[in-house]
Amino acid sequence: MTSAANDAVTIVTGGAGFLGSHLIDSLLADGHVVLCVDSLQTGSLANIQHLAANPKFEFLEHDICQPLQIDQRVAAIYNLACPASPVHYQHSPVKTVQTCVLGMLTMLELAKQHNCPILQASTSEVYGDPDVHPQTEDYRGSVNPTGIRACYDEGKRCAETLCFDYHRQFGVAIKVVRIFNTYGPRMRPDDGRVVSNFIVQALKGEPLTVYGDGMQSRSFCYVDDLVSVIRKAMDSDPKFTGPVNIGNPNEFTMLELANQVRELTESTSELVHHPLPKDDPKQRCPDITLAKETLGWTPKVELAQGLRHTVEYFRQL
Ligand code: NAD
Ligand code: UDP
After folding, report:
1. Which of 102, 113, 255, 293 gives 20 to 30 Å between its CA and that of 304?
2. Three-state secondary-structure class, residue 186
3. Measured from the CB, is residue 226 less than 6 Å from ligand 1?
């Protein structure tokens, strides 16, 4: 980062992951100097290798649970570090809690020290298995605190608490965005989430694994729409803290998704039903009124179009 060493740096934790790497592309395109901080737990250097020669980009392999000393001026912090797929966050649940809570503390301390804003990638999972539908930001959720998803759900809830306490107690500028299911290129083939699973299975001609009866719903947002609203949230009025729901409110059952993927890939794969994982939310759909009104944003990419881009990506792997 030598040629840009005098510029303030924007930190993206989790920047070698799916969402983080797209966010970094967007920041660099607008001339920001970016430091990607990632432990590579679920991320991959392949997601950022195209940036290696960019003088405004630097990669630091680092676990955000450990203190981080940055000598340069820090302009802003996007805290995305955390495995997001249920398969991966449940693989090492204690580590997931540490990343959510200790990692958040570390990054908030850094924001306080540098007097810079911090955006927290929170999640629709703070609503658990919701009994309010669609979910609005004032709904307090229905999370099983001792279940297998709690390491992530409760970890992210505590991270939100820490953000608001640092804001109230120390005046740290925070932006808490609650991200709903997002998909696109650079998801890992073994990520375990439904969109990548179905696409990879369809392209290999394997059966698509539908958990339960497939009537549970999700609302899928294409990654470009998500990055655009994350950037808008960071650049919003300093008084705006969130939490704000971000995602695409068009809702689909997993059976509908499976059929769209089969059509787009022209696959003859069968559907095979597997047991529904414990505590799997039955429905999820964001009310995005706040994001529309405050950030002037609406998602633009329809599911079929986003799936087409994602299928193309997986075809080329
Ligand atoms: P991802 O697994 O592709 O990326 C997460 C990145 O964080 C990886 O590169 C991983 O190596 C890194 N990481 C994990 N623990 C770390 C640690 N302790 N220190 C440093 N780096 C660490 O997942 P994603 O889909 O890109 O999600 C990014 C963020 O967005 C996560 O915080 C996730 O909770 C949040 N989010 C994503 C979605 C979604 O649908 N993609 C939905 C809600 C919330
Ligand atoms: N799912 C599925 N088949 C898969 C993977 C997931 O039917 O191969 C279901 C899962 O049970 C859930 C939905 O798809 O109801 C979304 O799962 P995902 O892991 O993508 O994200 P979640 O919203 O559960 O965090």
Report:
1. 293
2. coil
3. no
